[in-house]
């Protein structure tokens, strides 16, 4: 499998994306903002198709629009009235624009398919270099934000009282989510970003590890799902994004078994008493 250059490129690209998506997804699940990752991928879709229509790299359009939209979402504030409705309306408008751009993009149906469902096997050296830069910068930014972000996520009132600038923190974090979303879309496509962006982080959060262990564990799990999906795709000839989605769902379901077993045991002990 690794004798082929396109497979080595695919493993490298998915690895870059996964080590960023896992920790970012853990914070998304912790803060209850999973919908933001889903929405940013769909909003960024319009930017990617628009860039392709203009003859620019789709990744550039996706990145710019997703990061700008993340800043806009963060500026709305966590407690803004009608925030989810506003995001939903923007998402709908962006998808409508994406549909229009697709209609005008008559010269490349493969581009549309790759944007919607991913084409990690078609990653070029230029795209891989871009993903590496995005990952390195985003991980550095996450390391800088992690302590105040964790404080604000667990105890927002106390964090605000201690002087944490909550609006700025929210803007910076969602811009980071936008960058991670742009990277994930290269592997899974905009329709399945949730599987790699939120799935591993939500699974690790469900297990209940401490933050010091949860962040690297989320990165390792995302990496295992991405590489496992690629390997299964090679052996089965099914799309890699399909297998990544399957592995993400299976891991999430399995992570809940210990908690369910403990709950049933406690209920049984209470019934016997």
TrEMBL record:
Record key words, sorted: Cell membrane, Ion transport, Membrane, Transmembrane, Transmembrane helix, Transport, Zinc, Zinc transport
Function statement: Involved in the high-affinity zinc uptake transport system.
Official protein name in the record: High-affinity zinc uptake system membrane protein ZnuB
Native source species: Acetobacter sacchari
Subcellular localization(s) per the UniProt record: Cell membrane
Family from the record: Belongs to the ABC-3 integral membrane protein family.
Pfam families on file: ABC-3
Domain of life where this protein originates: Bacteria
Transmembrane segments: 6-28, 85-105, 125-145, 166-183, 212-234, 240-259
Signal peptide positions (record): none
Membrane topology: Multi-pass membrane protein
Classification via InterPro entries: ABC_BtuC-like (IPR037294), ABC_TroCD (IPR001626)
